[in-house]
């Protein structure tokens, strides 16, 4: 498959809930081997865009193509192998061990009543090792801390071994150490050729880890491109209504909201 075919294309996408339009005239391209961050204020349509890419929400207009094929022409089974989704919060209600929960990520590769094989077990162990969850493999998921559970849930997504990972606010409510750990894992996956599309609110993490940013505002794309361009003062003022303070340390730029305009 050529590099041109390996992309997610969004053309003239419009999405709404009943009479309410959430996204309108969205035109975007997501490339493999890169982290694309979706940023913007609450209600801008970030999570709706992710769910549209998965086919969980039927668009009112426009088209989404994954690796050159219209999303509607890709079977549910094939979508689940191409596109892995980590939902925001991702609650767990069953007393599963971490290993069994991560193993659920292999279901798209199994036929009816088919048992997990050696390749599946390797993918499960690799995902747990990558997320530092292997040491927790025998723990019940519901007994984990918030950070441990977030890493375990990310392991389940990684175990799918999908080309594209769609991740909705994976660092929400995590302590700083786990935030850096999760973002580092995603950066490593992008380096391995996976395409990562991630919803973020932390502007510094977006600046540090993302290769491309899409700033959504009122259901439209206000800015897209390199992080330093998208995070310009005028864009932050227009989207968030804030003035930000910036400083450099260890070769990294830090962006902190200073006041509401």
Summary keywords:
6-stranded mixed beta sheet, about 30% helix, 9 helices, about 260 residues, ABC transporter ATP-binding protein, about 30% strand, translocase, ABC_transporter-like_ATP-bd, 4-stranded antiparallel beta sheet, Rossmann fold, alpha/beta, single chain
Residue fraction in strands: 25-35%
Kindly report the spatial arrangement of strands forming the biggest sheet. Answer: 6-7-8-3-9-10
How do the SSEs run, as a string of H and E? Answer: EEEHEEHEHHHEHEHEEHHEE
Cα-to-Cα separation, first versus last residue? 48 Å
| Average of per-residue pLDDT values | 92
Our count of helices gives: 9
Shape: globular
Question: What is the level-2 CATH architecture name?
Answer: 3-Layer(aba) Sandwich
Largest sheet descriptor: 6 strands, mixed
Task: Indicate the radius of gyration in whole angstroms.
Answer: 19 Å
The low-pLDDT segments are none
